[in-house]
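Suppose a colleague, Dr. K., hands you the sequence of a protein chain of 472 amino acids and asks what its three-dimensional shape might be. Before reaching for any lab equipment, you can write down a predicted structure in token form. Begin with the sequence itself:
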Amino acid sequence: MPQKPPILCRELSLLAFNRRVLAQARDPQVPLLERLRFLCIVSSNLDEFFEVRMAWLKKENQLNPHTELDNGTTPAETMAAAAAEAKKLIQEQYELFNQELIPALREEGIFFYPRRQWTAEQRAWIESYFDRELLPILTPLGLDPSHPFPRLLNKSLNFAVELSGKDAFGRASGMAVVQAPRILPRVVRLPENLSGGGYGFVLLSSILHAYVHKLFPGMAVEGCYQFRLTRNSELTVDEEDVTNLRAAVQTELRGRQYGDEVRLEVADNCPPQVAEFLLAQCNLSPNELYQVVGPVNLVRLMAVPDMVDRPDLKFPPFSPGLPKDVRKDQPMAEVLKRQDVLLHHPYQSIAPTVRFIQEAAADPDVVAIKMTIYRTGTHSDLARALIAAANAGKQVTVVVELMARFDEENNVNWANRLESAGAHVVYGVFGYKVHAKMALVIRREGGGLKRYAHLGTGNYHQGTSRIYTDFG
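The predicted structure, expressed as tokens, is then:
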């Protein structure tokens, strides 16, 4: 038989897609704050790339190093090619951030102040902020024989601190780790009177670098270096060992923050000996080190466009419309008795779909609602409507896909709430993902039962329906 030709490398294809996202951040015709947003999306996508794809390659390389993948190369070869391409992409991303976006933002009165540029007034306010908001929360972890390197949360911001001298107990640690709790904002806005006439921001990393010495009284800080560890975040549930899928997923979720290490990010000021120390502590090779010129987590800058009231630097707001046959004052059941309705998201609103389920939940003639849930989000009017229907005594059956990547916790929570309300919750066929988007409403009409259905290509997620192109 002729040998099957290799397919395209999935990992390199994903990186090529992210290069297209980066191209949006480069495009001067895109509004400036949206360019910053696209830059952050690249980092967010790369986080998932390392958590899932690179993590899978690394595991496959450990278990089956000589296996040829569908792309015609071994796991190690694919991993090396993907790492080289990822490093090139990240370098271009930070060059764009430092050389184009930061200066362009500055021209528009949006400033990111590094420590060396703080005025005396800014420094006084920032130090007061550190003393009030950070100092009580931060916990330094000195490293010595009785205090080994801490177990770090996935994607958490950390600081390696080089020390000299002795602490209050007479111990000479030499090195400590400071973890920045996720409750702390990564970008702090300065008061208007300290912002140079515009919007002034300081990164949490800059604040901590400036005042980390306050965490180590009696000792001298010789260096402080931010770093971030990415871990394998793929859930692995063994079909043969599972008696309760939801319990198994919940158990896996608890361990997600501490999966195997796949990437170490450090700032450019991190000296080689510290980087080597961190690599050794994280069980990573030099090729898994990503040194960046700037903050190690650009995702956190995603909050900045929403903190800046400059509509001229953003895409104009878009309000999705409704089909001409759908009126807000007419129940969806009355509309659907006359005709089918096609919705094209995001250009048309998901509101008719939400109303369809909400009205069914409140309609005394509706006897049953059946629906699939893949992604709904944390705050879902549709899921609440299903709970209301169950509480009203209707027969509610919901197929919940627990293995919707990075939405597993949300879906477990909704499954629990639906069951508590009396809904019948099932999880589909193990080993297959339920990607179907379907809802069925059964209504008593004219002495019989009539079925109304919704079919969709997108998720029942009101947020993503405003972003992704889908039909319903």
